[in-house]
Amino acid sequence: MYDMSTRKRALRPKPCPRCQGAPEPPENPRAYAYLLGLYLGDGCVSAHRKGVYYLRIVCDNAWPGLIDACEAAIRSARPDNSVLRVKKDGCVAVTAASKHWPCFFPQHGPGKKHERTIALEPWQQETVDAHPWEFVRGLIHSDGCRITNWTTRLVKGETRLYEYPRYFFTNSSSDIMRLFTNTLDRVGVEWRQANWRNVSVARRASVALMDIHVGPKY
After folding, report:
1. Domain of 94?
2. Which of 34, 49, 201, 217 is paired with 165 by a 20 to 30 Å CA distance?
């Protein structure tokens, strides 16, 4: 005879690791570090009815691989919750509902991120310290890019074209910018503040490091 209580237990979502008596880090800290970068760049948490919150991370349609990676990271955080792709003009909002998103993203709050303080909780910083490249990758995939710059030089009377790759990260929050550059320092990437909302990585060795661990969007 089928036991209905067994079915109910199977359908019951896993408990939130942050709401237990002794809070624990997310089950997959590597994926969480990446998801945190995505959230700080292009994500938001908004309240809904009955204590439910929606996590939304907006991804450009030009990068289907990024959309897949974003969905996988969200599923790793709350495996029992559905993840939807809400189509918008030129982009997709990868969306999932849960009562526990504020537990995962205590940076959630009213207003825009650059208009309020953004600071990591100690457990989040520990996760970023353990998986710094995943955090950098999430930030670049949300608010960054890898481009090819060019310049000309006069060599023996001839004008020659030189091309070189570089990474940019753009964000209006000085706090998020600082989290990004502090993590770059930790992994040995040289960077330069191009202006108040842009950080550039152009040194050959640093670009090579970024190519190994981050790479262009896809």
Report:
1. 23-213
2. 34
β-bridge mates for residue 198, sequence order: 170, 195
pLDDT digits (tens, 9 = 90+) for 123-165: 999 999 999 999 999 999 999 999 987 666 767 777 776 777 9
Give the integer Cα–Cα distance in Å for 170 and 151. Answer: 22
Can you tell me the distance from the alpha carbon of 181 to that of 200, in angstroms, rounded to the nearest whole number? 10
Residue 173: give its domain's CATH number. 3.10.28.10
What are the beta bridge partners of residue 174? none
Take residue 5 and report the two structure tokens written for it. Answer: 């209580």
Q: Looking at the chain, which runs of residues are DSSP E strands? A: 43-47, 53-60, 83-88, 91-98, 144-155, 158-170, 192-195, 198-201
d(CA 141, CA 71): 13
State residue 13's pLDDT score: 60
Query: How many domains would you assign to the chain?
Result: 1
Q: For the full predicted model, state whether its pTM sits above 0.85.
A: yes
Q: Phi/psi class of residue 35: alpha, beta or left (left: φ > 0; alpha: ψ in -120 to 50)?
A: alpha
**10 lies in some domain:** no
Q: Is residue 9 part of a domain?
A: no
